[in-house]
Amino acid sequence: MFAKMISDSESIDQQVYIGAESCNKLKVRLVGNKLSDEIATKRIKKALIQNNGEDIDSHNRQLLHWNLMITNISKKNLNTSIITELYRIR
Hints:
With 90 residues, the chain is of the alpha+beta class. The chain is 39% helix and 26% strand. The chain has helices at residues 2-6, 37-50, 58-63, 80-89, and strands at residues 11-18, 26-34, 66-71. The longest helix has 14 residues, at 37-50. It is globular and about 40 Å long.
């Protein structure tokens, strides 16, 4: 599902549902920015060390190229770049 959302984009701002039970799913906003190759490479190296040198599957490797955040703040209140900056400061 994530691969379809990001395709070749540099950012994502999508309404998604989280939760295990269908009656209790919460509608949230998934916001993310693609990281530079330099930062992604550092994250991959760190993940390999944490995984005792074993390779990381392609899905997790792809996720390491992104800075993803979940929020309930609507698009009309804060755009993607402001949310990203607020999370960075936090």
